Amino acid sequence: MGCVCCKCRRRSPSSWSDGGKKIIGKKDKNASSDELFEVIPIPSHNFKLECAVLTRRGYYPDTPNKENQDCFCIKTCIQGNPNVHFFGVFDGHGHAGKQCSNFVKSRLVEILCSIDTLVQDPVHAFNLAFSTTNTELHDNPEIDDSMSGTTAITVLVIGDKLFVANVGDSRAVITLKTGDHGLVVAHDLSQDQTPFRNDECERVKECGARVLSVDQVEGVKDPSVQSWGDEENAGSDPPRLWMRNAMYPGTAFTRSVGDSIAEKIGVVAVPEVSEVQLTANNPFFVLASDGVFEFLSSQAVVDMVDRYMDPRSACAAVAAESYKLWLEHENRTDDITIIVVHVNGLSNSDDKKGVEEGGSSSGGIQPTEVKPDVTPPRSEMFGSVGSNFSQYLHFHQVLLTNDQNQPVKQPR
Questions:
Q1: Would the CA dihedral through 234, 236, 237, 239 be positive or negative?
Q2: 311-329 and 298-306 helices cross at what angle (nearest 10)?
Q3: What are the pLDDT digits (tens) for 113-133?
Q4: What three-state secondary structure class fits 283?
Q5: Which parts of this chain are annotated as the region Disordered (predicted)?
Q6: Among 336, 152, 337, 338, which residue's Cα sits nearest to residue 259?
Q7: pTM, whole model, 2 decimals?
Q8: What 3-state class would DSSP assign to 84?
Q9: Which domains does the chain have, with CATH numbers?
Q10: What is the DSSP letter of 390?
Q11: How far is CA 341 from CA 65, 83, 88, in A?
Q12: Which one-letter DSSP state was computed for residue 75?
């Protein structure tokens, strides 16, 4: 839900099911695993991550040549450490959205890799990397980010901990296995940063933004009514951000990388960072663009992924269901990107030595969220696979490989 020309709705089924048993995907019978997904050992805690990714261009009948503005980044063995790995989904928007998302997916992880204290203080590293990437995007003479940018949902795995950094309205979700029946419950690892959130709405208003739906801006509805319901059931006309005396930029999110004009009214690139301890009761986690969550709740996505033993098949099923629901409610679809990461063999039973030397991290912690100052400024493996999604049941799977980039000098 990005640009003002897209009057998107959110209508989320409470759960998704197709009747009972886990489904074994085609990979298990016909495909070799190293051709289609990556298995990532975590030697510090003697478990493995098995991940798959899928990204698809949306269906845009009015602009059939529009490129997929989503992209992703998966980089293993950050700084040569076999216990540190990065996952990210980037959802571009605006005229230069593809350029912005590709720039950020490349530059963000390069900067993270260059920060010596990444493992010791990942929260600081994330804030520094996002700030520097945003500044470099503004200064890039080849990309006009005045009305373009990208959201970013990223997960840094350090041993048996996840550090989740979010800017925008893409989402990360983890599962909690409960009881003896193997039921799974979705827990959001990020909060969508939109005007539906009271804290974000008040913050951007203090920065000078008008927060109104398109109907309110056009005089169809009373602009003094500052209530739009909740994000899951708000219909097709969400609240957006506008300059005080102008009909732009109309962003439906309150944070992004880029968007230099919207930055003047509080749209910042400051991530919300949370820290989560993985346990044996967390069978998988998911990162996805808002093209997935527009009509599917987090629980619906988790229910769907849980039905498949193969993460590639899970990606394909979620993307197909998302696409179908888009066309049931709209005459188009959004770009859709999803990463599914299975957590296999984690026990949390032993105290280990630190991950900084390629060993292990220490014991459990409670999930915590770090809320940085969001006072706005005044003024490896990389993937981006596009295709026509009209034949959405045919999915090309993406080979994930290590990409060991050289560290770069950290900009000040």
A1: positive
A2: 140
A3: 999 999 999 999 999 999 999
A4: coil
A5: 350-385
A6: 152
A7: 0.80
A8: strand
A9: 53-191+274-391 (3.60.40.10)
A10: G
A11: 32, 15, 12
A12: E
